[in-house]
Write a structure and sequence with these properties.
Largest sheet: none
Main location: membrane
GO molecular function: transmembrane transporter activity
Structural class: mainly alpha
Subunit structure: The complex comprises the extracytoplasmic solute receptor protein and the two transmembrane proteins.
Pfam families: DctM
Subcellular location: Cell inner membrane
Length: about 450
């Protein structure tokens, strides 16, 4: 049986299963296992199932085993644990408090502080969903209490939460690096400038919003003194230290990304206990949440690894590369098509699911065009970031909706999100048009 036909049929069934809301890990592993069995069973031209059991089980178990025992994959539980420990030690929330004090006198300052807080939180946790959930509980209710426009109060946090995808460390960058066999340290560094541009773009949206409609953001009463601002800035030093360890350590060649994660977890524990903000009970709770979150990621990754091996076996990727090259598409048209695919999938699937579904087919295509995989990784993560706030299934928007409850209908949140989406599209265009924005820091190592 033709491998390409099996691959395309399996891919169609996979899309169908995802449409039926089958968990993506089981859909990937199930379709890949059955497809692999069919290929081996028909290898001699006739259906011989007895000859397919051993090679199928070997492919399935060896690929999942190799993935779980990957050294790079150990970064995920370390960075996830860092996020939970830093939150319980109040390291992440102090970034928001510092920004809150410094920006209090500016119209829309609390919304801006929320975005800055999300950026700081992202620089430690690496998870957009966790960022939106945590900062949403802190920032959104406070802005609503102050009388902020409901769209601004919720949309600013939902958009700010997406910064966890680009600003290092990022779980999505880790998964991308493992599946494309690119340097995760370089990916982390490549995300810094695009992440900061995105953050500044969100701040600009808030400033213009409030400039055009001052009633959207009531000015807070009271003026903070220089002493209060200095104290708030000093109080945020643990977060700055952890970020310096991650970025400075990697850039300076002192640590690998995995070593930086381990050092930061140790530093967060020491700081939390020294400042008496951590207890043994809170650490155990953080580790428990880490195990739950990491396990779900590992199961999806294992299913994806099996699917990648199956796609390689079918030869579908090579056929697609050949067809696209025969069509003689230029790079601009290719990248616009890839962007359209990601934006469409982002309306319905979660970021990890989109990435593991598309990378087996798109990476060989991108390599065939001689494009830089580090730059392409930043483009992919930015597209996934946009998907987190794109209707009808913007995960970050639903996270914020669950935090504020019935006070703000979800359609109101999406209404406010559209202004931030405009900036996201502009930033995406800049990243695609000027690869130097992503490659400047990695290339200077």
């Amino acid at each position: 049986m033709d491998g390409t036909l099996v691959g395309l049929t399996a891919f169609a069934f996979l899309i169908l299963l995802l449409g039926l809301r089958v968990p993506i890990a089981f859909a990937l592993a199930g379709v890949a296992t059955i497809g692999t069995f069919v290929i081996f069973a028909f290898r001699t031209g006739t259906f011989s199932p007895d000859r397919a059991f051993r090679p199928t089980s070997s492919l399935v178990f060896s690929n999942s085993f190799d993935l779980i025992h990957s050294y790079d994959l150990s970064m995920i539980p370390l960075f996830v644990a860092l996020g939970h420990i830093a939150y319980r030690a109040e390291i992440t929330t102090r970034i928001y408090r510092a920004a809150r004090v410094w920006l209090a006198a500016i119209p829309g300052g609390v919304a801006m502080a929320s975005v800055v807080g999300c950026g700081g939180f992202s620089a430690i946790t690496g998870s957009s969903i966790a960022c939106a959930s945590t900062m949403g509980r802190i920032c959104a209710p406070e802005m609503l209490r102050m009388g902020y426009d409901k769209r601004l109060a919720t949309a600013s946090v939902a958009a700010g939460g997406t910064l966890g995808s680009l600003i290092p460390p990022s779980v999505l960058f880790i998964i991308y690096g493992i599946f494309t066999e690119t340097s995760i340290s370089s990916l982390f560094l490549a995300g810094i400038i695009p992440g900061l541009i995105s953050l500044l773009g969100f701040l600009l949206v808030i400033w213009v919003w409030v400039l055009r409609d001052p009633s959207a953001a009531p000015v807070e009463d009271g003026v903070t003194s220089a002493k209060e601002r200095l104290h708030a800035a000093i109080d945020a030093w643990p977060a700055m230290l952890l970020f310096v360890i991650i970025v400075g350590g990697i850039y300076g060649g002192i640590f690998t990304a995995t070593e930086a994660a381990a050092v930061c977890v140790s530093a967060a524990l020491l700081i939390g206990f020294a400042q008496r903000r951590l207890t043994v009970k809170s650490v155990i709770e953080a580790l428990r949440e880490t195990v739950i979150q990491t396990t779900s990621i590992f199961i999806i990754a294992a299913g994806a690894k099996i699917f990648v091996a199956f796609i390689a076996l079918t030869g579908v990727a090579g056929e697609i590369v050949g067809a696209v090259q025969a069509a003689d598409l230029n790079v601009v048209v290719l990248m616009l098509a890839i962007a359209a695919i990601y934006l469409l999938l982002g309306m319905f699937l979660d970021p990890i699911g989109i990435m593991v579904l598309t990378l087996p087919l798109l990476v060989p295509l991108v390599e065939g065009y001689g494009l830089d995989l580090i730059w392409f990784g930043v483009v992919v993560i930015k597209l996934l970031e946009i998907g987190l706030i794109t209707p009808p299934v913007g995960l970050n928007v639903f996270v914020i909706a669950s935090v504020v409850g019935r006070e703000v209908p979800i359609d109101r949140i999406f209404s406010g999100i559209m202004r931030f989406l405009t900036v996201d599209v502009i930033v995406l265009a800049l990243i695609m048009a000027f690869p130097i924005l992503s490659l400047l820091i990695p290339n200077s190592m």
